[in-house]
Specification:
The chain is an alpha/beta fold and about 400 residues long. It has helices spanning about 20-30, 55-60, 75-85, 110-115, 135-140, 160-185, 195-205, 210-215, 250-260, 260-270, 280-285, 285-300, 300-310, 320-330, 375-385; strands at about 10-15, 35-40, 50, 55, 65-70, 95-100, 120-125, 190-195, 230-235, 240-245, 315-320, 340-345, 350-355. It has a six-stranded parallel beta sheet, with helices on both faces. α1 (about 20-30) packs across α6 (about 160-185), α5 packs parallel to α7 and α9 packs across α13.
């Protein structure tokens, strides 16, 4: 069988929380040897919630497939060991990923003296090195003023650490890009990446910055209505809620056919002098369209909605809790090859995801367990000749 696609690549990770550990986990899932270095007893995220049996599911999830080493860098011996591990020879090594402070012994300037082609990807909160986390970045970007029901006062946060996630995945891309540059040109480099820049870049790509500059009025809140198109949640007869969208003319036609409301849609279209093949018109006239659809959902159970919508190719999904997802959705089960039942130290056996990437010419990126804290310390130090 072919080797994993990143077999032979080695990354030393000095990290905490989400972005950098996720970057490392992304590469580890594809076969890279990712060695996470923590202080004895663990770093500041070792007990972060959610917990099970007093151990962090969060830490385990972000460190799947890595080797765990504990070294005390408060003393000179520990600093030499970590520096030696980072700068150890080998074609695929000499790469460090961190979101911890880099200064003096662990700075790029000092470490690159030990290995000329060193690659360091350093994640910060703000571009200038200032402290920021996902939730402060999100607050600054304006999204909490677009989130939540219409008419509500004050900002509304969401629970997904989106900027952390994007930064982590982008850090993995940065390592692969810098490693390709090194193979082509023989030189390493420092790559800097900030959470706030990732958020600002995406806000620009989505048109939010341009909109704020060019439009006189700020965008408001629209609750669960999907801005600029047709999409909203509806309640079914049996008390469930579903999300329904029509982003394309074909999806709009499918929704009319599935609900039997094609004629009513056409009549409204004529009265409003609109063209519901256009996203803009579906958005502008969304409220009377919602009023036509609400009674249909109120007279159908979720099972009937599912059968009808799947048969007609409607773009939709039921709202479900994570427990409902695991009970009812085959995508979150071993029917999906991305998942396996894996036993993790201290936590037990549970459904665990590998990489969502599927390569045709490499071994599958199957799910791997998280390490126990410090599990590989002796192994790694012996492997690289770094015993005290």
């Amino acid at each position: 069988m072919a080797a994993p696609i990143l077999d032979g690549l080695r990354i030393v990770e000095l990290s905490a929380f989400v972005a950098a550990p996720l970057g490392g986990a992304t590469l580890a899932a594809l076969g890279a040897d990712v060695i996470r270095v923590d202080p004895p007893g663990g770093g500041i995220d070792i007990h972060r919630w959610p917990l099970h049996r007093g151990h962090s599911l969060y830490w385990a999830g972000l460190n799947q497939g890595k080797r765990s080493v504990t070294i005390d860098t408060r003393n000179e011996v520990g600093r030499r060991q970590v520096a030696g591990l980072i700068a150890a020879p080998g074609e695929g090594g000499g790469i460090v990923l961190t979101n911890l402070p880099v200064r003096e012994w662990n700075s790029y300037e000092e470490l690159s003296k030990l290995r000329r082609d060193l690659i360091m990807v350093a994640i910060t909160g703000d571009r200038d090195g200032g402290t920021a986390v996902d939730y402060t970045v999100n607050a600054a970007l304006g999204f909490p003023w677009l989130t939540g029901p219409e008419g509500i006062d004050g900002p509304v946060n969401h629970v997904l650490p989106a900027w952390d996630g994007m930064t982590g995945f982008l850090a993995a891309v940065a390592i692969l890009a810098a490693e390709r540059h090194r193979r082509l040109h023989g030189e390493g480099q420092l790559v800097e990446l900030s959470l706030s820049d990732v958020g600002l870049a995406l806000a620009g790509h989505l048109g939010l910055i341009g909109e704020a500059i060019l439009e006189s009025e700020p965008r408001g809140r629209f609750g669960n209505d999907v801005y600029g198109t047709f999409g909203r949640d509806f309640g079914t007869r049996d008390g469930r809620r579903v999300m329904v969208l029509a982003l394309t003319p074909r999806q709009w036609t499918s929704l009319g056919e599935a609900t039997g409301l094609t004629g009513e849609f056409a009549a409204l279209e004529s009265r409003a002098v609109a063209d519901f093949r256009r996203e803009a018109d579906r958005w502008i006239h969304r409220k009377p369209l919602f009023a036509l659809l609400e009674p249909w959902f109120a007279h159908h159970d979720l099972a009937e909605v599912r059968e009808n919508f799947d048969r007609h190719g409607v773009l939709w999904s039921p709202y479900q809790t994570v427990k409902q997802l695991l009970a009812d959705d085959p995508r979150a089960s071993t029917a999906n090859p991305m998942f396996s039942e894996v036993t993790h130290p201290w936590l037990g056996r549970f459904l665990t995801a590998g990489s969502p990437l599927r390569f045709g010419a490499a071994a599958p990126a199957s799910a791997r367990r998280a390490p126990d804290l410090g599990e590989h310390t002796e192994e790694v130090l012996r492997e690289f000749g770094l015993q005290a």
